[in-house]
Amino acid sequence: MNTQTLIATRERISPYIHNTPIFTSHLLDDMIGSKLFFKCENFQKMGAFKMRGAINAILQLSEAQQQRGVVTHSSGNFAQALSLAAKNLKVPAYIVMPKNAPKVKKDAVMGYGGRITVCESTLLAREVAAEKIVTDKGATFIHPSNDLNVILGNATAGMELLQAHSDLNAIVTPVGGGGLIAGTALAAHYFGSHCKTIGGEPQIVNDAYRSLQSGQIETNTTVHTIADGLRTHLGDINFPIIKQHVDHIICVEEDEIVKALKLLWERLKIVVEPSSAVAFAAVLKNKSYFKDQSVGIILSGGNVDLETIKFS
Q1: Active site residue 14
Q2: Is 50 a catalytic residue?
Q3: Which residue, 74, 187, 226, 233, could crosslink 158 as a Cys pair with Cβ 3.0–4.6 Å?
Q4: 174-184: per-residue pLDDT in tens?
Q5: 240-276 as b/e, with b when 16 or more CB fall inside 10 Å?
């Protein structure tokens, strides 16, 4: 891994993604006592940062592999990202989704041309269904977060943030499967100037926090968090990057996530999903740590089901 690898990734995917805007708020700056820069991946194509990793992963396949198609298992943003990326490149996309996935997400995948296989709502069922497609179709499996090309694609959000604000002291991201924070950590390491990478994670599903403490990949016994995009655990490809380059992870409670979400909606006037608010919640919770610093916050996406959000 080196600077040139990341630069090549950025050049490769730039025709297919948005260089998303960076928002600021004097009121939120005053609230934290810091200068905050919000990287708005809710304005990315298909509404989340995952488009970056999906398009890079497909572009790295051979022509023969692209013709046979790609497959993933996901009930959320990566299902949509891989479907849209594949559509743009005229590549077949096979998406394994659990039967309890929201209809709105299934409709979005089909709208992007993804070919859905419905399975039982367990990780094992997802993996078995995806492996069958690999065998039957010859498609290449692409993991939503534990894939180096996905991680490198994700890194480009942090690269853009640092290109615009090279003096950042820290970048804070939400932590779920680990693909975004690993990519961001690489961007901060190679393009930042003493820029730390810090994670925000729901206390209820704090496997990444525990993994850093124990030095091995931990898992969760519950997934009952409002931040539905962060219910997955780390992988053997992204975890070594996280161990080496992530400074620490801040755990936040559910009410702190809702408070942060409400502030983002009210003050930035943008729609973000609960998972995005976790990074800001971590900053809100640790104002003294971030005081007088320049802090980048990656708002990971905006694909929210409005029916599930209750602010009171």
Answers
A1: no
A2: yes
A3: 187
A4: 999 999 999 99
A5: ebbeebbeebbbbebebbbbbbebbbeebebbbbbbb
